[in-house]
Specification:
heterodimer; A: 239 residues; mainly alpha; 10 helices; 0% strand; disordered N terminus; B: 318 residues; 6-stranded mixed sheet; 13 strands; 36% helix; 23% strand; globular
């Protein structure tokens, strides 16, 4: 709150003319606050995303294997994860706070449940993607059911699984910004603060937003490289 | 390479699919001697693929018994039975995520062969089926249809099984590639001496490939089981006669080569058309009709063996 009588005191103490002049975007603010604001927020954001996708995968993968082995489980699993997805994230936070408080746990429960709806169907679809004739040849050659899974179905599922991970990572990076409603962590927090400021100065929004986009794109690129490494047959030249 | 071949016996085997009135295979009894190239042929619904897949127990049957070298297949452990049988299907079913070399090495690896032995066996098989050593590092998507089926065949032969099951293996190939692979499979069969059970709906393929042909009719009933020559000469019933078609005579002639025949001695006036002894009689008849000739001179290289007349062809059919 500004005092009506006093001089205008800039929010950011000593700053460049760009900052004190409330320009929309200031590089020197980014430089000055990289180490105390943006850098840590980026690391936290990466952690929020990695934990969410990691735990989501750790839950979705065995469930998908179960659903693949026992087909009748697939539909109930799919319905439950889709229902979780329909709950608006802010509402889900509110529902969880009484139980888990203003903690990372609350945020991660919400984020993980969103990754499930992406990862589970992608993994099951991938496991089903082995063509019938390939499975018949495998059985005809005397592979056991387990060998068919490990040597044929899982490798052939890799492109679909990595495809699911890509969507999960990119969407989690975006959704994780709303963690700022609960915690002063992640790239959402600078954005959250800036939204509260009634000034034209929006450097936090632009810089944190750009970092979130860059984080999503680079994580996505890493997964593309990973797919090339573990599924080389998907990129061979045909002919 | 061993030359072991298995003897297969179907003993009153019957299979009915749930919810269907007619049996898929009815009381099938068939003895296939070791080393025989046996073709199962017939119209769709004849149960030939069902009969084939019962041998490696991909399809269970309701009654009767199938024996390989006298052993009831139902008493053998499933994986052991299948690893001892080469299996080739029309859609090939190569593993798309594995290189050609890894595809071929599948069964040897399941059987726990030494790396070195597997590698040299893979190289040997690539050569046997007419592929380059460098193809071992390629993926199936990089091969043509014909090359893929060669890999399928190499994969089936990898662990040197005494029995090969082939389910319309060339059905999806273009005619030229199919003919080439048929020729090579015949050569290969002579070389490796396996027992082969080969399913096709194409009577021409059956006649050209088989040592023995089992003709199955709707409901999986065995209509006739004999050598191609015997079936063509004496169809068991109207169904068989109709199935082998009205150009039965030409098919019989196609089975004989000029060198097999008793030829009339050549005389000075018989110049005209010369044909090599390994050409079929059908071929010779076709050439004579085309050129308006009534005889061909049969030669072995430069040596004249004798004369074959158009009028002799009729004799062969009687």
């Amino acid at each position: 709150m500004r005092s009506a009588a006093g001089p205008v005191i800039p929010n950011f103490g000593h700053g460049s003319t760009c900052v004190t002049g409330d320009h929309t975007f200031c590089w020197d603010w980014v430089r000055a606050h990289w180490s105390d604001t943006l850098g840590p927020a980026l690391v936290q954001h990466l952690e929020l995303t990695a934990i969410a996708v990691g735990i989501g995968f750790a839950i979705a993968f065995p469930l998908a294997l179960l659903a693949h082995r026992f087909r009748r489980l697939e539909q109930p699993f799919g319905v439950v994860s889709a229902l979780l997805y329909t709950i608006p994230s802010l509402a889900l936070f509110q529902l969880l706070v009484p139980f888990t408080g203003l903690t990372w746990t609350t945020v991660e429960i919400a984020l993980v449940s969103y990754t499930l709806v992406i990862l589970f169907p992608n993994i099951t679809t991938g496991l089903r993607s082995a063509p019938d004739e390939v499975l018949e040849a495998a059985r005809g050659m005397g592979l056991t059911r387990f060998q068919v899974l490990v040597r044929v179905e899982l490798p052939l599922a890799v492109p679909a699984i990595i495809g699911g991970l890509r969507i999960a990572v990119v969407s989690t990076v975006a959704i994780a910004t709303i963690a700022a409603f609960l915690l002063p962590d992640g790239l959402g927090y600078p954005i959250f603060l800036a939204l509260k400021e009634p000034t034209p100065f929006k450097t936090e929004i632009y810089s944190a937003g750009a970092l979130a986009v860059a984080l999503a794109l680079s994580a996505d690129a890493c997964l593309v490289v990973l797919r090339r490494l573990v599924a080389p047959w998907t990129t061979v030249k045909v002919g | 390479m061993s030359i072991t071949a298995a003897e297969i016996a179907f003993d009153h085997v019957t299979k009915r699919y749930a919810g269907r009135e007619a049996a898929a295979v009815s009381d099938l009894s068939l003895e296939i001697p070791a080393g025989t190239f046996c073709v199962l042929v017939g119209p769709s619904g004849g149960g030939k693929t069902t009969a084939l897949k019962m041998v490696n127990r991909l399809i269970p049957f309701d009654s009767g018994e199938i024996r390989i070298d006298g052993r009831n297949i139902e008493t053998l452990p499933l994986t052991e039975l299948r690893r001892g049988i080469g299996y080739v299907i029309q859609q090939i079913g190569l593993f798309p995520h594995m290189t050609v070399g890894d595809n071929i090495a599948t069964v040897p690896r399941l059987l726990g062969w030494q790396k070195q032995k597997t590698r040299s066996r893979t190289a040997e098989l690539l050569e046997l089926v007419g592929l380059e050593a460098a193809d071992a590092r390629r993926y199936p998507a990089q091969l043509s249809g014909g090359q893929r089926q060669r890999v399928g065949l190499a994969r089936a032969l990898a662990a040197d099984p005494p029995l090969l099951l082939m389910d319309e293996p060339f059905g999806a190939l273009d005619p030229i590639t199919r003919f080439r692979l048929q020729t090579e499979l015949k050569r290969l069969h002579r070389e490796v001496g396996k027992t082969v059970i080969f399913v096709t709906h194409d009577i021409d393929e059956a006649i050209s490939m088989g040592d023995r042909i089992a003709i199955l009719r709707e409901g999986g009933v065995l209509a006739q089981y004999d050598t191609p020559g015997a079936i063509l000469a004496k169809p068991a019933d109207d169904f068989v006669a109709q199935f082998i078609g009205e150009d039965r005579a030409l098919r019989i002639l196609a089975l004989r080569t000029l060198g097999d025949l008793q030829l009339a001695p050549a005389t000075a006036g018989d110049g005209g058309v010369r044909m090599s002894r390994d050409k079929s009689v059908r071929n010779a008849v076709s050439v004579m009709l085309e050129r308006g000739a009534d005889a061909v001179t049969v030669v072995d290289g430069d040596r004249v063996l004798g004369v074959f007349r158009l009028s002799d062809a009729g004799e062969l059919l009687r």
